[in-house]
Amino acid sequence: MMRRLWFGLLCVVLIFGLSGCGSSVPVDERALVLILGFAPGQGNTIRMLFQIPTSTELTSVTSGTNSSGKQFYTVEATGATPGRAFAKAQTMVGQDLYLGQVQLIAFSSKLSAAQMAQVQDWLNRLGTMDNSAYVAATSSVDRLFERQPAAQIPPAVYIYDTFSCPRCSAVDFQQRQWTLETQLANDLAPDHSMWMPWIEANQSGFRIANVVVYRHFQPAIVLTRAQTVDLGYLMGRTKKGDLMITWRNHTIGIRSIVASSHYRIRWQSGRMHIFLTMHFVGTLEEAVDMQLHADTVKSVEHLAAQKLGAQVLSTLVLLQQHGTNPVDYGERYAWWHPETVSRQVMRQAYAHADITVSTRVQITNTGAVT
């Protein structure tokens, strides 16, 4: 499957991206960049890293053979601005660095707020940049660029396959550069709404299980896996949630949980009150050591609703304490009612808002129920 993905990707690139369409640069003077990275350099400079497939790998994929050589190489350049670093990198390789097929943009969590804002501005202004690229944050861009997946496929293909399959993991981690660009253009992201998947290199390749939430262009908090699932419920991105509960000394599991939600805002004594209503749907695992009856299912639904409600509320309060609002509560209200309250007032009120979560769980498949 991975090999077919890699072959398909390169066919598109070779036919359209490197053919010179829209550019007078010859193919042999152009280098294809698949992963683009940004990290802080010395003295407030910005380091840029470019992962480029080798000609050996391109030949092996297009010919259907296995490559025994190195699949990619990395070019690194540092500059006072992203533009200067990019120009320096092109001079170093003596080729045009083609960004029209970048699959991943990786941002170091150590970038300052000013550097992150500068990088985003440069990316949004770069006409040759494909803003459909996935984005992710990491603690070490260098380790990310050095790691080779255990499946012996190029990292860009592994990451592309992971992000492009929303139901292959518990949470849909798809976040693209164009989404960040839209958020920044609407002035939502700098304070509250900017989030990305958190990716780390490990011995087997890459670990993608968490979300990092930004505030003022800097990471405010890296959520745990459980908190990431909770945020996914709120954003409609959790596709395969799970929950374990205890009912009458029996451990019961609920899987494949998805959620829908809506909220309303009320003002009381000058304080914002957010009322969130959530509807969860899941499958009850068959319990081999107990008999399930219809009334049992209703009891399990009630217990599950209580536990999920407490989890989601805890995650919301944590995000609120860190000054983040990735679901944009209140922001939308200000858009809908500009005559009532300004967005700035809503942002300030959200920091001290009272949040109430009401939940309902519906079990749609119960295995063996009598």
TrEMBL record:
Signal peptide: none
InterPro entries: GerAC_N, Spore_GerAC-like, Spore_GerAC-like_C, Spore_GerAC_C_sf
Membrane protein topology class: Lipid-anchor
UniProt-listed GO biological process terms: spore germination
One GO cellular component term noted in the UniProt record for this chain: membrane
Residue ranges constituting the Spore germination protein N-terminal domain according to the UniProt record: 24-164
Keywords annotated in UniProt: Germination, Lipoprotein, Membrane, Palmitate, Signal
Entry keyword Membrane: yes
Domain Spore germination GerAC-like C-terminal: 223-367
Superkingdom of source: Bacteria
PROSITE patterns xref list: PROKAR_LIPOPROTEIN
Homology family: Belongs to the GerABKC lipoprotein family.
PANTHER family from the UniProt entry: SPORE GERMINATION PROTEIN B3
Name the UniProt record assigns to this protein: Ger(X)C family spore germination protein
Organism for this UniProt entry: Sulfobacillus harzensis
